[in-house]
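Dear U.,

Please find below the material for section 3 of the report. The protein was modelled together with 2-acetamido-2-deoxy-beta-D-glucopyranose; I have listed the sequence and SMILES used, followed by the predicted complex structure.
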Amino acid sequence: MEALLLIIALLPGCLCAVTVSVPPKVEIEIGQEAILKCTPKFSGSPKYSIEWSLLDQEGSRVRIATYNDGSTSVDHGTDFTSRVAIRSDNSLVIKDVRVKDEGTFICRVTSASEGSGEGSTELKVYVTPAAPELTVNAQLLSITEVIASEVGTCISRNSYPAPTIEWYRNQEPLNAKNEKGTELYATSRTTTEASGLYTVSSTLFLKPQKEDVDAVFSCKAIFPLPGGHTSQMESKVFKLNLHYYTENVSFMSSPNDLIKEGDTVTLRCEGDGNPAPTYLMQKMKENAEGEELPSGSDGVYVFQNISRHNSGSYRCEALDFDSPEDVELVKHLNLFVHYLNPVTVIPGEEEVKRSLKEDVQLFCSCDGSEKPNLIWKKGNVVLSETSRYRLKDLSYSDSGVYTCEANVPSVPGLHKEQNITIVVEGPPELDMENHQVEVEAEGHPVTLSCKAKGNPVPKITWNQPDLKASESVSDLEVVSEVSFKFNSKTMNDISCSAENHLGMKKKEFVLSLYVAPSIAPAEEQKGGSSTAIIAVVVCVLLLLLVVALFYFLQKKGKLACGRSEKQPLAQDPASAELAVELKSEKRNDQRGLLGGGGGGTAAEC
Ligand SMILES: *[C@@H]1O[C@H](CO)[C@@H](O)[C@H](O)[C@H]1NC(C)=O
Ligand SMILES: *[C@@H]1O[C@H](CO)[C@@H](O)[C@H](O)[C@H]1NC(C)=O
Ligand SMILES: *[C@@H]1O[C@H](CO)[C@@H](O)[C@H](O)[C@H]1NC(C)=O
């Protein structure tokens, strides 16, 4: 009996030489095509049949498809009827895999000569969930609460197998336990949908700390993937809606330093309570109740165009009645506004008039919260890096706007300036060229021009009012021109004058008819007068000759006149008298000769 049993037990080993190898597990994502391999091994090469079946819930086999003698057939009435086939390599192909397809598949191979064998494989199906959905508890959470409060719920829908949900604070896992506690825990629930997919929800409870104010929370669904991998999907992040009292108050200005007049300055008072407290902002007054800043109750006060009067001490109080007594809710702040007074300039007038060649001394001064640097500029050119600038020997080009700038280097942008305009004035200067004009003939056109310079620009007038003048002014120069037809009877004396309040200049024109160098009858008169001049010159020369002769004779006949006149002067009065007589006589003679021409030269001897 025992031996028989042994033989039976050994039978498959010796007679059933068919071995069937199948992969132990096939993992597939939903909707894909699953291929379940089945590889029989025979000692010969016999004919065989294959039967693919599935273990149902109760553990009994349900046949799906078969192969026999070269043909395959699919069993009717199973979930797989329209989706499976047996391929030539004996594998079972399942199209469009569903969650419910998951299970144990058996490949049984039977050969008439070598018996049968089988192998089983597990089909595992995976479904990736949708992104986790988050519902946040909108209620204010208080840090004074003694037990953990509900913070939010995270739901991961429709995945297979079921995912796990984890909670994070600032991307760090919170590791919330599943048991109820006082500090931190999460409750979780898994439901199976009709589709066979799982929906998992997790609700987080925690006792918030003050540090949680800025923390961001999120949940992640972590789900398995084929091949032992996992993947995860994160929810949106959220912040806790925390309620806590004010512990710290800060009070600052922006900018916080080097404030100058005209700046926009914001005072900001901030308590760290939530909800934010209201504030009382005041400017402190000596020996008096502070003056409340209007509209400062939200903790912000803006000075548009701040002024020196806004310098001083400010106080801010956070009005949080939840705060414990020992919390300091009052802060002070000192504000200093730098300023410069207007620049004063000497000379004090906006416009200073000076004459050409004069000197002007410019001086400016300025003071403020800090001592400024002063400079003088004209346009962009720096003339002096001090408060003084001296203009010597003024010329017209010195006219213009001079600016004294005050800058405080330690307070960027603190700047004041004052302009002064210098006007260099001068009397008219008239160009005297071309005042003699020759005209070819009566009735010919003539143009006369008058060019004058001065400041103020001179006004040019012509003495003959019926002459039409055309005028052009450039810079400080004016040119006036008149044109007319020459008429010797009426146009003998033409003049222009240039005038401003500093003076007047006149230019007289001499107009004459041009004389050709031929002897025309009209020129006899002129020729006559020149012969007369020649005659006079000849007479004068003759007279001079006579004088020279007379002088020579006197020198030869008597003694040298220097001695004869001077020696007796010193010795005896009689001879001195004679000398005087001689001298006067001689003079008279000379006068007579020269016809009273006033020639004192000869008397020098
Ligand atoms: C608030 O005040 C507490 C105690 O005075 C201090 O420890 C903490 O650093 C302060 N927090 C801030 C943000 O200033
Ligand atoms: C700023 O205030 C000053 C007087 O304090 C005033 O002269 C100036 O015009 C103001 N500027 C602006 C831009 O309002
Ligand atoms: C001074 O004059 C300059 C140039 O003419 C001008 O740009 C500037 O605005 C003036 N400054 C004042 C204060 O009038």
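For the text of the report, you could mention the following: The pocket of 2-acetamido-2-deoxy-beta-D-glucopyranose (ligand 3) is lined by residues 401, 403, 417, 419 (CB under 6 Å).

Regards,
Y.
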